[in-house]
Amino acid sequence: MKRTPLLAFNDKGIYCEQADVYLDPWRPVTNAIITHGHSDHSRWGHQNYITHYQNVPIIRHRLGEINVTGKSWNETFLVNGVKFSLHPAGHIVGSSQVRVEYKGEVWVFTGDYKTEDDGISQPYEVLKCDTFITECTFGLPAFNWLPQKDVFCDINNWWAENKAEGQTSILFGYTLGKAQRLMKHLDTSIGKIYTHGAVENMTEVLRSIVKLPETTLITSATKKEELLGNIVIAPPSAHGSPWIRKMTPFVTGTASGWMAFRGARARRAIDKGFVLSDHCDWYSLLDSIKATGAEKVICTHGYSDIFSKYLRELGYDARTANTQYEGESAEMGTTPENENETAA
């Protein structure tokens, strides 16, 4: 008799039938374990939410007053005999992997993750398992990240050069995670950090969790002369808006893994692109999978077909599964399909 998998993919999300629990469901369910606060993984409408305690204020800020329980790292909780625990994913503040164990079988769902320590998120933890569910947002060999310190050296030099030329630096990064990572590593000896309202609101939520530098909210009373030589952190959606046009003269930059693609910066009419992602690159994905010892791998959002094919060539029992997760595409308005170019 064919054994029912411990976790199965259906039209609502990733489902553990034995426990009647979903992981990051995209349709309303009774019981949901949420890996992190990005909108493609934490959605409104579930009756009961379980997440890491650091993620509680984040999802409440985004979803309102929900019935949510916070757990600590490595804290085991039982649901109908199934052992669940949350472990650091390193993606953004409060992001988790979900470990699921039943009758000696162990599955791990990563949600979104990265293995480089960004200085604000709890660093990624390797978990041994039988089956590993991995994202593939950047699952192509073309994606090979430089160390974070090198990228921030470039960003700070760019800011200093813009200041010397009497221009405002506007740096785009998604509101939750990337924006705070940027401000954490900016060299404030160059100038002040100003923020868009959406960035400032989320940053205030995170200040209770992680230490961040001082920022100044841009309001209708802010004069563009105040901004000259300083840096503004804004969401990508602000690009081209009336809000930003009032800041002339300015130079724009974007921090994203998609900046590894030749032409991505030009298509967005961005002056400078910095390759900085909160997801694994190709090599980190492979190293992570190997470290788990898993024989079975399920590849979700991103370049899942290409990546799973390569894993099968390496000898893994690998397949793909459809989800409604979007990875960095959700925040940047891009998908692998419309970024299919040769990387720089």
TrEMBL record:
Which Gene3D superfamilies has this protein been placed in? Ribonuclease Z/Hydroxyacylglutathione hydrolase-like (3.60.15.10)
Region (Disordered) residue ranges read 325-344
**Keywords annotated in UniProt:** Exonuclease, Hydrolase, Ligase, Nuclease
The source's domain of life comes to Bacteria
Under SUPFAM superfamilies, the record lists:
Metallo-hydrolase/oxidoreductase
Q: Which GO molecular function terms does the record list?
A: exonuclease activity; ligase activity; RNA endonuclease activity
Q: Is Membrane there in the keyword field?
A: no
Q: Where is the composition biased (Polar residues)?
A: 335-344
Q: Which PANTHER family match?
A: BLL1145 PROTEIN, CLEAVAGE AND POLYADENYLATION SPECIFICITY FACTOR FAMILY MEMBER
Q: What is this protein called?
A: Ligase-associated DNA damage response exonuclease
Q: Provide the species name.
A: Flavobacterium pallidum
Q: What lineage is this protein's organism placed in?
A: Bacteria, Pseudomonadati, Bacteroidota, Flavobacteriia, Flavobacteriales
